Amino acid sequence: MSGPGSPPPVPGPIAWALARLIDERERRLVLAELAELHAAVAARHGVPEADRRYLRQLRRYPVLLALRRVRATARLPGGGDGELRRAGRGLASSPVLSLTIVATLALGIAGCAVVFSMVEALYLSPLPYPDADRVARIYTDAPPNRFPFSVVDFQALEARQTSFERVGAYRNASRALAGDGGVELMRVVEATPGLLETWGLAPRWGRTPTRAEGAPDAPATVMVTAGFAERRMGVATPADAIGRTLTLDDQPWEVIGILPPDLGPLARGSEIVPTLRLEPPSRKGPFFLTVFGRLAPGVEPAAARTELRALNEELFPLWADSYQDRRASWGLEDVTAYARGEAGPLLGVLMGAVGLMLLIAVTNAVNLLLARFGSRAREMAVRRALGASDGRIWWHLAAESAWLAGLGGALGLASAYVGIRALPVVAGDWLPRAGEATLGGYTVAFASGLAGMATFLFAIVPAIHGRKDVHLGADLRSGGRSSTDGRSQQRTQRLLVAGQLAVVTPLLVGTTLLLASFAKLQDVEPGYAAEELLMVNVALGPTRYANGGRRADFWEPAISSLAAIPGVAGVTLSSERPPDDVGNVNNFRLEDRPPPAGESEPVAPWITVDRSYFDVMGIPIVEGRGFGAGDLDEGAPPVVVVDEVWARLHYPGESPVGRRLYAGGRTSGPRTTIVGVASTVPYQGVGTSPLGAMYEPTRAGLVNAWLIVRTSGDPGTAASAVREALRQTDPSVPIVSMATGASLLHDSFTRPRHLSLLLGTFSAVALALAVIGLYGITAHFVQRRRSDIAVRLALGGAPGSVIGRTVWQGLRLTLAGLAVGLLATLPLTGGLSALLYEVEPRDPLALAAAAVLLVAVSGVACLVPAVGAARVDPAAVLREE
Length: 881
Hints:
Blueprint: H1 12-21, H2 24-45, H3 47-73, H4 80-92, H5 95-124, E1 135-142, E2 145-147, E3 149-150, H6 151-160, E4 164-179, E5 182-191, H7 195-199, E6 205-206, E7 221-225, H8 226-232, E8 245-248, E9 251-259, E10 272-274, E11 287-295, H9 301-315, E12 329-334, H10 335-340, H11 344-375, H12 377-385, H13 390-427, H14 441-469, H15 472-478, H16 487-522, E13 533-539, H17 548-563, E14 568-574, E15 585-590, E16 603-609, H18 613-617, E17 621-624, E18 639-643, H19 644-650, E19 660-663, E20 672-678, E21 694-697, E22 704-711, H20 719-729, E23 735-740, H21 741-747, H22 750-784, H23 786-794, H24 799-828, H25 844-870, H26 874-880
Parallel strand pairs: 7-9, 16-21, 18-20
Antiparallel strand pairs: 1-2, 1-11, 1-12, 3-11, 4-5, 4-11, 6-9, 7-10, 8-9, 13-22, 13-23, 14-22, 15-16, 15-19, 17-20, 18-21, 19-20
Helix pairs in contact: 1-3, 2-3, 4-13, 5-11, 5-13, 5-14, 6-9, 11-14, 11-16, 11-22, 12-15, 13-14, 16-22, 16-24, 16-25, 17-20, 22-24, 22-25, 23-26, 24-25
């Protein structure tokens, strides 16, 4: 017990810590000093304040002792911690050089980390589904295509398979959600009973649909996410939404289950999961179901594939009249690969580009360090004279390298974090699952590994040349310039510069190829007059507009209202929209050219249009005729118009007009007559029309359609009037999207434009780094030969000869690097073939353009110091010598 004015007792944990950190004598001395401090404070500020300060010092003291002990035990060999401080001070004395190296390295690491974050998200991070390695996508395998399943396929699989615990299917769709704020079109995933169990997901509240609820006449049931229930259904807790009703497409749907907020990459962005009620099929197609299966315990994928092929063989004869491709089978794909999509080749190109850029950045940094090391020859000589060993000098270089690489890595990770956050905005439209990339553990480890390799290179290359080129006596006598002037160092610097130029060559060639491809794409004629078009996607509710007559009751007055808007020159209707939006690819059978037995029927985009479509779109009919009013009469024989690509593909050198075909997999019944050939219009992307297109007429019988409005001026100014006219026709019908034809055509080039810009940026940075290195080595050559140049000029040498000799010294490195780079480019550019349009990966013009650009820029980089060398005053230089 302490008396009045005496310090409070030492707390037990602090006493325990002090007993283990210091001996008894030192502990008593510390407590005595603290008691004196307590007495002095008590006299001036009172006992409570003295107690507070006393206890605060007691709490701090064990921490300080522990840190001191850690520092003592963690002291690096040979005083390495002090070496780190000295190295840091040395680098701070050369801030421009140090910051240049750090920024260069950070740029390369950041680029690699951003791309690797996508690799981590797609290849290394597990999917959010339990035992995802047991889940597989099942598809129709018709090489080279992988199609979804038809209802026939799925029902046969569900009834007869034995390899899977569960199978389920879904299709993406849109539903009009009615609420207090009006009608909104929502993206939904229509799922069969069993799909959630196949994925391994369970509702947080409620249940999943039963198998009976998947029957066509079953009551409509739906599951929603917890976030949707809280935001849109006005419930206190998500569980309160169970049993309530959602109005989708004018039909009530009972909520039976509340799902987790995120359904993972297989259904990301969907918050509503209606139960898919499949109608009995009348033929093998259409193919629209994405099917998954969870392998049963003990069943390997190979065994499941064997069973799938056997089931398909048994099913084929039953539906051969509507689908006769005997070669097509059922395939199995790991769900991780399916969720990854086709990002592999694109990520390979990007990772190769940033990897080359990082290699150039590191090489440039090593070159700068070699130059710095050469200027420190006297310092290194003094260190050796004072007894420093090669190991100690290497340790000093390693400490400097650790500082540079550590700072570059930290800055690179910070920059990568910003870049990763921007990925969904910059690349979300063309890089699958870009929003899932994060600065995860694998990415941090990858970036740290790059920084570690940079540390090693930064230290080892100067150290090797330090042993070869530092000559103690000569360096001390000459003030730091050896008689050999570091010949092996100079040779290494030249090799590094040539290597940089060799590495930048594939980047330049790749960028040139992509730019040439992009230019050719932009030169492609779209086949229609995109200017002055406004395209409006409108979705009718299938319940309110259940038949063609009721749909016509909306479309006909809507078209009349839009045509009456001032400035509107024409209005038409279409099921699809160019240049890259087609959802209906249908098969057909030519009457005079049926496919051989056992082979698949041809397919093509099938577009249903109003008879005014070709006139409003500005698509010329090059042979035959378009659609007339008689083609829409009840009982009129079915007709189609095909495009030029279709005609060349199926009737090369002949006219298809008057030929007949069976549509939609039929082999009997009414035949459709080809009445005209239209100019080719892309529906699968500009420059991509391998199947051609087929048009059939409709009298406004579409549910989800595009209203296409041609104006006599800027189509954007008519947008509000168009929206109001549709609202007055039926306010419950949602407008899905609205865009001008020109903007849609421009947006179709987003992927090649962004990819060209991205690779071009990498190439520009890499070229700048390589050219800076070339400039540096040329300037160093000029400085080293300054006295020789002065003597040459003093003896009457022409300045032009000095310039030519200097430029040639640099261009020799450029030509050597270019030769090696071109040899390496030929196999590397093959990976770009899938991204190019009408440009070969080994296009000679692209190779020549890249070579000319590299030589021209290198020539300028060499010319600047060469001109400076030719302008030296020989007398002044010789007096200095």
